[in-house]
Design a protein that fits this description.
The protein is an alpha/beta fold. The chain has helices at 2-19, 34-40, 62-79, 91-102, 127-130, 149-159, 181-187, 199-203, 210-213, 241-255, 261-299, 326-335, 364-368, 375-387, 393-404; strands at residues 23-24, 51-52, 55-56, 83-85, 108-111, 134-137, 140-141, 146-147, 163-166, 190-194, 217-221, 232-236, 315-319, 338-339, 341-343, 358-362. It has a domain at 35-271: Aspartate Aminotransferase, domain 2, CATH 3.40.640.10. It has a 7-stranded mixed beta sheet, sandwiched between helices. The protein binds pyridoxal-5'-phosphate.
Length: 419
Amino acid sequence: MREALRTIKENTLSHEAWRSETLNMIASENITSGAVARAVASGFSHKYAEGWPTARFYQGCKYFDEVELAGNSLYYQLFDAQYVDLRPISGTNANLALFFGLAERGDTLMALHTSDGGHISHTGFGSAGIRGLEVTTFPFDQKEMNIDPDAMVAHILEVRPKLILFGASMFLFPHPVKEAVDAAAEVGATIAYDGAHVLGLIAGKQFQDPLSEGAKVLTGSTHKTFFGPQGGLIVTRGLEDDLLGKMQWGVFPGVLSNHHLHHVAAKAVAAAEMLDYGEAYAQAVVRHAQALAQALYEEGLDVLCEEKGFTESHQVVIDVSGNGGGKLVAGDLEAANIICNKNLLPWDPIERSDDPSGIRIGVAELTRLGMQTHEMAEVAAFYRRVILSKEDPSAVAADVTSFRSGFQDVHFGYRWEDI
Ligand SMILES: Cc1ncc(COP(=O)(O)O)c(C=O)c1O
């Protein structure tokens, strides 16, 4: 037992030390402020609070009630919402609640194929399948790296889905939500939007606002471009009362009994940070992604969508099939202290998940660490040294560590002692 404990402690500390030396560019990750981290470590981590504020199934919630109400009000403000639910404990959990609330077993869900950027929770082998939904995929334009709007309208009218779910894991450009509204109304479908990846960009007003464009439900993760902690949420605008009630039932008792109260407290702090800094942060994120993509392209890498300016989000996608493939490249980058993930590209069959053609990189964490636009050229040069010049990754790692040592503080957020 002692040995196991030592292993846990040592590896936790090693992970933290290593992460402080790396460029973490996993597009679905970010770093939290001291205030958010402190709320996660609070006494709410071992408390139950099923039910609604002031109407709980458990005693001892008088302080947490105030926290949940304050958190909700910050999110209402942030998203100009009809209803906010901070209880889902992950983006997947929020999607599952959506599927339970807004669809019945046997209904059809329209979502993106995994190779085109769809998330596993949108698939027949993931949450949608567990809910018993039939999944049909959006027609995808590989050159535009986006849903084909005309073909999408025709497909909606033909297939008559119950639920149309926009949003993606590989997500470079805003989706054609507005273009789906009339067809969705004609077949009686509800439009929802999985903003797991781009939630912080939506909150910072630098990406499409799906709720203004015709989506009635926004689901998301709170820890990708948003300011953390790990968690999920649901936001609605204009959703019919009966559907809203069904979705609330989908959350509790559908996919949750207790929610994670310490994460609700931390999500509340993260929302305040977004209200204060979100716009400047999201502008910087998009600017950095575009600068990084341009610099990687100039270094000689096959960055997708040059004609479209590469990206309008926090992500950059590179085809590395000519450089040994996604598995090898992501592994070499990790050995050089650059952490990103291999990724399926639209032309990859799903069987290639273990060794796909692409890598996907994100700049949210670098931005929070205070990097500026001009630093993206230095980051791109590290990628070139590993992927094209085939330098020994350990030599690059030493330079990455030295570069990273200048970026140790979290920006766009609060210290606990300041709130
Ligand atoms: C589009 C999309 N939806 C949902 C999720 C799931 O989020 P979580 O990890 O919070 O369950 C992800 C995760 O990467 C995602 O990319």
